[in-house]
Amino acid sequence: MTPTTAAAPAPVAKSAEGAAGRPARGVRRKWTEHGLVFIAPFLLVYAAFLVWPLISGLGMSLTSENITGTGGEFVGLDNYAEAVRDPDVWSSLWNTVWFTVLSTVPLVVVGLVLALLAHQLRVVQWLWRLSWFAPFLLPSGVVCLLFMNMILPSDFGLADQMLASVGLTPEIGWLTDERYAMLSIVATTVWWTVGFNFLLYLAALQAIPAHLYEAAELDGAGAGKRLQHITLPMLRRTTGVVVVLQVLASLKIFDQVYIMTGGGPDESTRPILQYVYQQGFTGYRIGYASAVSYIFFALILTVSLVQPLLSRRRAEEAAK
Fold this sequence. Notes:
By secondary structure, the chain is mainly α. Helices cover 76% and strands 0% of the residues. It is globular, with a radius of gyration of 29 Å. The N and C termini lie far apart (77 Å).
């Protein structure tokens, strides 16, 4: 009886110790289970280099901040009011939207066509994939210089030589004529970036079950019917993703225009981001440039939110 009585308090003490230590272990377990410990370094970097600049820039847009360090007085929404009245803002925004319209359609269609061809080819398939994706790996400066010095120059450029070979008049000012400057930038962008859309479509094509095509072929469906009723419907979600990504990427056009035309001729190709750059780093008006950039940010945010909602609504209507 005595050993049993003496040993009884020990489990109670151990239980109390466990109860005291359980909260700390519970907190550590909760952090580990939710992955907070692992993503904490990323969150710190994200906050330091994205969240804080976003908040700081918003505050700066409400001041007369100057790149020289002068100014900085609070002006409220005056910068935004001036931006709304500024015709250069609207012309630059229109150039950006026009470039997006001109580039998105061929980038989606050409990417799909190239993916369909690469998916059907059985000879040196890897070479075709590499050839169509390789331009996307080149830096923007290299691509622009390639087109400026080899494709688009008058007289000896490849574009003029191709026109002359079919009897058309060469010597077109591809980058100096307002009628062709934007189209030249669009062509450069399509050649350079279509490989990304091609890769997305190719991955989606390879994920389509083969038995669907086999069943359709047994039912007598030809290649056109299989494309219309199997391939394209199965690629609908991928097309939605490609369109959204392409629209957002095209809205942020800057490099090609800055290198190839500088926004000319007569500001006919200047995008909104170049106007922000000019106001901030050439005109030294950091506060006003921040306001214009946040107006543009609101446009991009609207596009990124509206497009998925429209796609979801169409999917729900199709399901009904």
